[in-house]
Amino acid sequence: MTEGNAGFSSGLRRPSEEGAPPEQWDAEHYAANMRFVADMAMQPLIDLLAPKQGERILDLGCGDGPLMGPIAAHGCSVVGVDYSEDMILKAQEKGLDAHVADGQSLSFDNEFDAVFTNAALHWMKRDPDGVITGVKRALKQGGRFVGEFGGHGNVAAIKTALLAVCNARGIDGFSRIPWYFPTVDEYRAKLEAQGFEVEYIELIPRPTPLPTGMAEWFAGFGNTFFEGMDEETKSAAVAEGLALLKPSLCDSKGNWTADYVRLRFSAKLKT
């Protein structure tokens, strides 16, 4: 697969508040170009969740609901929440019980046997402790919190390239980083501080092929770094970012691989 920067467009809008989740994902763009995020983690995460007949489970950051059906197939009742109205509309069109909500200020109270999350918590940069507080409140006594998201070292090369193209143009790239990628020790401490017993937590290196290339990854996940640039400046910045990354993340046939590292965990609320 060869790639240029023609047709670069945003898969999301920048948060209106620093560290808030993206206001709107373009659900069709996500489905066409970034579905691999849900697909790669699906079975291992559901195995870790071990859903049981009759349980009520919350899918936190459900997107358009790709994992809600497979969880419900175990005989569970699944509720999904996501910050993106477009994603939730797509989930509802599939007949899923999905609702718009900010994962950093959940309002559920003692309703769920488990909270499940995939590839969402790293977008909740503003208040990761608030996320855990809301999850704790949403769970029944002894409930479990199971998930996976970007961990320390995730997209390190990509982030470095994006910072470089911003800084070269007099933009503070660091202030535009939209993600929270904690270490194992950091996230374990946050969970334990709020009364969770961490049963499993691990960083998992996962080099991830990008079916539609790095320019589409920029458009879908890295657009905050290019916000406010005119089209000519953006086009040049994207081209420069691709050139910086090509020696390490693109093979001789033009196939791109993202340097993903995931943090996977399972924790139980102490009784």
TrEMBL record:
The keyword Zinc-finger does not apply. It comes from the Eukaryota. SUPFAM superfamilies: S-adenosyl-L-methionine-dependent methyltransferases. Residues 1-23 are annotated as: Disordered. Keywords: Methyltransferase, Transferase. The keyword RNA-binding does not apply. GO terms for molecular function: S-adenosylmethionine-dependent methyltransferase activity. Transmembrane segments: none annotated. GO terms for biological process: methylation. Residues 58-146 form the Methyltransferase type domain. PANTHER family: TRANS-ACONITATE 2-METHYLTRANSFERASE, TRANS-ACONITATE 2-METHYLTRANSFERASE-RELATED. This is S-adenosyl-L-methionine-dependent methyltransferases.
